[in-house]
Amino acid sequence: MRNLASLRPVQRQLRQTHRLGYGADVVDEQTSSLRRALDLLDALASDDAVAQGGWGVNRLAAHLGRDKSQVSRTLRVLADAGYIERDAESMRYRIGWHVFALASRAADQRLLTAAAPILRRLAERELSERIHLSVLKGTEVLTLLTQAPPHVLQTVAWVGRLVPAHNTSSGRSLVIDLGRAELARLFARTDFGVGGPNAPRDVDELYERILVARLAGFAIIDEEYEPGLVAASAPVRGFRGDVVAALNVSGPKFRLGSRLPFAGEKIKAAADELSTQLGWDGRSPLGLAGRAVGPKLPA
Which domain holds residue 132? Predict the structure, then answer.
């Protein structure tokens, strides 16, 4: 089931845009039309409507206390614009791809804004180690944001840097939902012979470690990327439940190694906190809900 809570800020933004973008001479009918459209979006985004695969005209009219012909006209306008869509078999309306596209853009902007104070808190108060926010780019991990504690000298420019996904903690969290066959396709051309002494040697070994990470809710890396380096990471999920980023902490083994389980729990809690801010409701831990229900976004 898609989590639609994150769509409500988009609806509020539409209302605010309406108030700011029009003068006092806007006729009542225009205001009423916009209100009807927003009320319909709110109704279709409700838990009951989503659970039932959408609502028909009669159900919407009864729910809103509106005339069926009026509701039908507004639905046609919203459908033409892509804000809702109608199932050809059930004749029920549901939230359409355009609303999800708007919500996705809002989530991208909110990711960095919401992550910054969380990274700072982890680095400066909770773990006193370097913290990163990363995303998956093919078979590599791209660092978007990094925060170092006051005592750590910034000798490496991590933002914008690419590292392999198969032998890093962030990479493990970013592919944590993938099955064995999906991993084999993704890493078909990956050289598993590079990295630290404990790097996975093939897809099967990588998949076994991913299963361990799933059970724990976070991934731990011990000298897989390079000798002497350890790390812990957890997935950040968007409003659909799919993994959109990863939080990780890394440091030298002599300093962080004995604290890795503790660090993993802290990173997991922070990643869950960030996921909640992005609209995830915690009901789709393997990111499957967004694939099963609702419209597919255009490529």
Answer: 103-277
Alpha carbon distance 252, 72 (integer Å): 63
CB 55 within 8 A of CB 44: yes
HSE at residue 253, side-chain half, CA atoms within 13 A, is 12
Kindly state the tokens that stand for 55.
Answer: 């609502």
pTM of the predicted structure, to 2 decimals: 0.64
Structure tokens at 215: 């059970």
The model's pLDDT over 200-239, given as tens digits with 9 standing for 90+, comes to 999 999 999 999 999 999 999 999 999 999 999 999 999 8
Distance CA 255, CA 207 (A): 28
Same-domain check for residues 115 and 76: no
The CATH number given to whatever domain includes residue 82 is: 1.10.10.10
- Residue at which a domain ends, from 77, 95, 113: 95
- Phi and psi (nearest 5°) for 120? -65, -40
Residue 25 φ/ψ, nearest 5 degrees = -85, 5
**Structure-derived torsion over alpha carbons of residues 67, 96, 278, 50, reported in degrees to the nearest 10:** 60
Both structure tokens of 57: 């005209």
Please say which residue of 43, 65, 95 terminates a domain: 95
Tell me, what's the pLDDT at 287? 39
The tally of domains found in the chain comes to 2
DSSP state of 298: P
Q: How many whole angstroms separate alpha carbon 8 and alpha carbon 255?
A: 44
The two structure tokens encoding residue 230: 């350890």
pLDDT at 16: 56
Question: Do residues 50 and 152 both lie within one domain?
Answer: no
Give pLDDT < 50 ranges for the chain.
1-2, 22, 24-27, 155, 286-299
